[in-house]
Write a structure and sequence with these properties.
CATH topology of the largest domain: Globin-like
Number of domains: 2
CATH architecture of the largest domain: Orthogonal Bundle
Number of helices: 10
Order of helices and strands: HHHHHHEEHEHEHEH
Strand order of the largest sheet: 1-2-3-4-5
Helix content: 55-70%
Largest sheet: 5 strands, mixed
Shape: rod-shaped
CATH class of the largest domain: Mainly Alpha
Structural class: alpha/beta
Radius of gyration: 32 Å
Number of strands: 5
């Protein structure tokens, strides 16, 4: 019997909060720092948050957490889509922690809650709010990292392009230092695009590569070997005198790889070899 009475009291608190949902959602209209269009898009998930907070008073805790997880993912997606900082969501969550906490306190007084019961209800409510912070932060960081990785992949693709100059000849103009990561992108792009274009020759131009040491040479050997396996011959161009001197001093040997000091020379050579 006591449990039934308690549930009714908790449901009444839920009902009061839901009744004030519109009012609570509109309280921030006059001092938001983002533009009106953004405000309009934030209102639905703000109301949704208030509903979750309200229902958490009287429904199963685990069910509330499941709802919060879904809500957190949706909010994070919205923030990243609108290019808004995580601070906005955290500020909203904190704001309604206090506003709804006051409603709970007032209603608990009207229902003559004991101190222990009030403490139990408010502690559970604060746990729900903490879970909201957790899920939004976790989802936001995942979306943020995913977007950074996608952007980095796009940059890598653009930084090591395969330029098709004739039906059978392509050029990869490298710019900057070649580290292990860029060497892997070079390998992937050369194989993928070389096969897609059905190239017979691929010129790797090193004119804008500042240093060719044993590590870079080793990576180039691997790329050349991989391309030969799919029937593409490789020529290196842009081997400047200072680079050649450094390579000799380091004992770097390009073995059977054909090299030219200019891209023009490499193009002339490969064009003469195309049947």
């Amino acid at each position: 019997m006591e449990d039934v009475l308690l549930n009714k009291k908790l449901q009444r608190i839920t009902a009061v909060i839901l009744h004030k949902k519109e009012e609570l959602a509109e309280q921030k209209r006059h001092y938001h720092f983002y533009n009106h269009d953004v405000y309009v898009q934030l209102v639905p998930w703000r109301k949704n948050l208030i509903e979750i907070y309200a229902e958490s008073i009287s429904i199963d805790e685990e069910h509330t957490f499941q709802i919060l997880e879904k809500w957190g993912i949706e909010v994070a997606n919205l923030l990243t889509t609108l290019q808004l900082p995580l601070d906005i969501a955290l500020e909203e969550i904190s704001y309604y922690r206090n506003q709804i906490g006051e409603v709970i306190t007032e209603e608990a007084k009207k229902e003559n809650f004991s101190f222990d019961l009030f403490s139990k209800v408010i502690s559970r409510y604060n746990l729900v709010v903490d879970k909201a912070v957790h899920w939004v932060s976790k989802s936001y960081m995942k979306d943020y990292i995913d977007k950074i990785q996608s952007a980095q992949y796009a940059i890598d693709e653009l930084s090591i392009p395969v330029v098709r100059v004739t039906k059978e000849i392509g050029v990869i103009p490298l710019v900057g230092e070649i580290d292990t990561h860029r060497a892997q992108i070079l390998m992937e792009n050369a194989l993928k695009q070389g096969n897609t274009y059905r190239l017979s020759w691929l010129i790797i131009d090193l004119s804008a590569v500042p240093i060719i040491d044993t590590m870079v040479a080793d990576q180039l050997f691997k790329v050349v070997a991989a391309l030969k396996l799919i029937g593409i011959d490789v020529v290196l161009s842009g081997i400047r005198s200072e680079i050649a001197l450094t390579m000799v001093q380091l004992g770097v040997k390009l073995n059977d790889i054909v090299t030219f000091n200019t891209l023009y020379g490499a193009l002339e050579y490969t064009s003469s070899r195309v049947k």
